[in-house]
Amino acid sequence: MKAAPGGARPCxxxxxxxxxxxxxxxxxxxxxxxxxxxxAREGRIAWIGPERDLNRCVAVAGDAxxxxxxxxxxxxxxxxxxxxxxxxxxxxVEYGERLAGRTYTDILAGGxxxxxxxxxxxxxxxxxxxxxxxxxxxxxxxxxxxxxxxKSGYGLTLADEHKMLxxxxxxxxxxxxxxxxxxxxxxxxxxxxxxxxxxxxxxEMLPALRSEAEFVDVFCDIGAFTVEQSRRxxxxxxxxxYGLKIHADExxxxxxxxxxxxxxxxxxxxxxxxxxxxxxxxxxxxxxxVALPGTSFTLGAAYAPARAFLxxxxxxxxxxxFNPGTSYCENMQMVVALACQEMHLAPEEALRAATxxxxxxIGRQDEVGSLEVGKRCDLLVxxxxxxxxxxxxxxxxxxxxxxxxxxxxxxDGSVVDSQVGDAA
Length: 424
Ligand code: NIG
Ligand code: FE
Known about the structure:
23% strand; seven-stranded mixed beta sheet; eight-stranded parallel beta sheet; 424 residues; TIM Barrel; disordered C terminus; 16 helices; binds fe (iii) ion; 34% helix
């Protein structure tokens, strides 16, 4: 056995037998490495190159995990940077009502929508919520997501938001990033007093939840919070050291994207109604644009102008927006397919947005989102020999194997190691 360079320990993980590695390295495209292999040490990628060089270049421990991709395509794990994955209850009935013509804003104004999920989530115990979340995390993982952002926002009291953020950190191998979304809806007990609720968020909730969430998000739109209310929350969050995110210009052109640029959000999400002015402001302020095609699909609404984002030089991310109202889908493969079909992205652009771009939307671009030396060894083995099957062979799960931190967590389409891994 060869000595590892610099006296480092030998690699404990090897991936070989791949038809191609879509590394996402380089300034654009997929960084495709045909016949590539990869080795990792203690959860991080230590070497990547042509398989014929593997034995010559890398020292591998005798008991290393060896994954043989058997001629399949290999990708970085998907990063899903916008989800509402912790909630109780179902809104299947509302889905039917919307198909019959009732709008999302009508349903919300009538006490349904987010408010219906708030009632169900408040009624759930911490244990029930954690159990529901764990099952959903299994499903995300089985569909190839290895890093997941999860927002609170269906509790809307300090205790219930805390309960949600705790459920988001339930033990599971899926890597997580938590976001406090207290400004998701005005709760019934504050009806007609939205400013008082904003005051409660700023004075009590933000300081109390600082150790439980890395980001703060606000729903800045018609029927939700105004630009001024959103600004108050985001500025208070910024003073406390949170990273900032915003639901912007989803239902109408309501000023959210410009606010994102003003206060320095890491990402602005939805952006269905963004015009060139919003796009220019986001570009100037280096805000990542997060497009959520699953939401447009579910609502039968317009899609965000993702091609314009790319043309303007924005970093583009894709996410599921998994939630019980507007996008009940945990499958990033479907999001990639919709982005190609409905937003006219090239397959390489969509895949990059679902991995490296998505990592940038949660400030993790140095850790995950591509297969590069030094990054986390999070990868997918597909049931296909090319990454372009992802868009083309749609509506099925093409993920056969999943590796997180150099450990096999999904094999032959089943979760095999759900006890390991760190929570948020
Ligand atoms: O991103 N727009 C606000 N929040 C979610 C929907 C949440 C819900 O309807 O429960 C979204 O679409
Ligand atoms: Fe959302």
